[in-house]
Amino acid sequence: MGRGRLGFELLLGQVLEALPAAPATVVDAGGGTGQLAVALAGHGYRVTVVDTSAAMLATCAQRAADAGGEVAERVTGVQGDAAGLPGLLGEGSQDAAVCHDLLTRVDDQAALLASLAGVLAEGGVLSLGFANRDWLALRAGRRGDHAGALRLVEGGDAITLTEAERLLSKAGLALVAASGVGVFAEAGDDDLNQEERATLIELERQVAGREPYRSSARTLHLVARRGVFRPELPGDRL
What we know:
Elements: H1 5-18, E1 25-29, H2 35-42, E2 46-51, H3 54-66, H4 69-73, E3 75-79, H5 85-89, E4 94-100, H6 109-119, E5 120-131, H7 133-142, H8 146-154, H9 161-170, E6 173-181, H10 194-207, E7 219-226
Parallel strand pairs: 1-2, 1-4, 2-3, 4-5
Antiparallel strand pairs: 5-7, 6-7
Helix pairs in contact: 7-8
């Protein structure tokens, strides 16, 4: 999704706030080359990366090895489909799951979320990230692609926060937090000086959970739990 180093730093901060304390077990569904998995392992989590690509899992293993022996020991790669996590890892076997940039790339979103719910222990945490359809529509319209913007407003492969909450609920997952990542930050902001970077990070943190900023973010990050009731989100009703 064109996320730069700063965007990843913002996302990682939100994920770390959402997860149970290390050394909890975490499955990274569709984790690819392991950028997030290795970062989490560096914070003490025991991470299993599940991906269909053997080449990506090999890159993930190398990334983990480059991070040092202790990190590498906490990262395991499993080749398989994220839609079959309970069969691969065991029903209710994980304390947490992270699934980023995958939801809008699968044909059966309900099956993926059911799989994520199934692999989580009771009360387990899901960190779910995906491209925000509202942001995609705004970007298309501002570029002059009004037909593309109209298609996105009317529907399409991407989803919105409200639609994602409905999908989570059907899977038995209760939404407990929703944040935006990349309300103001762009990939080019990686080159900002230290003061400008600190200001932008603080700005992003201040608006991540507030409307209308959240709904205009590049990425939506949802935190859900298995088997708990969802409290009302601060500042709005979905």
